[in-house]
Amino acid sequence: MALFQSISTHFVEFLVTPDQKKFKLANQIFMALLFFGGIAVWGLFLYCPQNTCNYHDWLDIIAPRLNFLKESVTVGAWPLHASTPMKLGVFYTQRYLAIPDAFVSPQFLLLRFLNVYQFIVFEMVLFYTLGFWGLRRIGQKLGFSNLVFTFVFILFNFNGHIVAHISVGHFTWVAYFLFPWFALLVFQLIDGQSGWRWIAKMASLLFFTLLQGGYHHFVWMLFFLGFLAIFIPRHFFTILKTAVFSVLLGMFRFLPLLALYNSLNDNQFMGGYPDLQSILENMVIIRQGGVEIPINNLTLPLGTWEMTAYVGVIGAFFILFFGLIYPIYKSNPEYPYRVLLFPTIGLLMLSFDRVFHLLFTRIPLPIFTGERVVTRILGLVLVFVLIQAGSEFQHWLNHHTLSRFSMLSILSLAVVAGHDLARNFREWMLLVASHYFPGEAKIEPIWLVDNNYTDQPYLNLILIGSAVMLVSYSVLIALLWWERKQDRKTKTAP
Q1: Which DSSP symbol is given to 465?
Q2: Would you say residue 76 lies in a domain?
Q3: pTM
Q4: Secondary structure of the chain: what % helix, strand, coil (to 5)?
Q5: What is the pLDDT of residues 308-335, one digit of tens each?
Q6: Element (H, E) at 94
Q7: Is residue 139 part of a domain?
Q8: Is residue 160 part of a domain?
Q9: What is the pLDDT of residues 237-259, one digit of tens each?
Q10: Cβ–Cβ under 8 Å, residues 155 and 311
Q11: Structurally, how many domains does the chain consist of?
Q12: Residue 493 forms part of a structural domain
């Protein structure tokens, strides 16, 4: 009995204490199990026997684009024009680099050695790893225990938002796994790191996001930074400089869009959440794939993959109570980032149908007209609220002594929450979701490189955008060097 009590006491301490020095080896093993367990789960999710999962955007968007890139690296040609037009929203184009969410990151060179499916799996593992690393950095910064980190890890990686988007072929949603790094940089800004070094890191992250095809994620992060500048005005000019350099670095991707400007203006706004109730419902109700319905009969029909943000009842309670309610009435001096609740709520407002529709129709700029489905913005909102929920829950754990019964109750609830997430996860696995999109037959990779070097307007925009990108990075590096030089002078001054 004494041995059992000793083991259970050490187990509870291992789970809830932020300081893991006493359990260094056990903690490393635990983190390794979480990491490789996540890879195994995503591998199961992506498992799809050959030729059976060509559906929705895997069929219409990803197959053309990745097969085109594979052809490009195989024949050694620039990926400029495709022989067959590719789908972009409601229209088609042969100009690959004019597609705002086209994948252009250097990893595509691996397509010379990998087939498209292998490349998709590689990208998922790569960005899952980056996401895990970013979450781990946040956990260490905020003092997450193993219990809290596990909650945050599971809800971040396997919530309905990311699972459903990957399921229907939104391959560029790998950019979602860069959100922890975005949050980490925002925390550094709140901590006072507001020089050119911070600007360079944030602008580089946004540029890297853009290269992954994460155009939408790039825009949402700019929206968040905009709200941050409003609610924390002392950082206004730092954020303004960051936004300017982020856009200048992205000119390589933005200027070619002008070749399709008239077509992009034909975008139809599809919708957002009509109210808070609809968000809550989509957090606790499992949605079936392959269905397009109005949200609460108040919006235009949207695919269920655009609505769902499923985390289950227990997950929703954890996020909403510790992420929103608890911070309001309980002070926590250990968490100086509560001010981020205001820009997070501002971003949440943009996910509402009527709010964004007003911006979409009154301000005809690509940053607004490029966002047709604003329910997607909830993904970044969830990440910030989830991180705050983890910090507040850890604060609660630090100030309460848990009995074995309390610990057992928490673990039991965690098991139930995991079971709920697993049910939703199974619903969206490629092997299951493919049955919700019947009648979509296999198509052959006919998207060959067919560069048209007489298309001068398009090619000139690419060249100008590339030049702006290179000059902007050179200026940013020069400013960074100048700042470091000034810092060294200050340190060596008597």
Answers
A1: H
A2: yes
A3: 0.93
A4: 70, 5, 25
A5: 999 999 999 999 999 988 887 776 666 6
A6: strand 91-95
A7: yes
A8: yes
A9: 999 999 999 999 999 999 988 86
A10: yes
A11: 1
A12: no
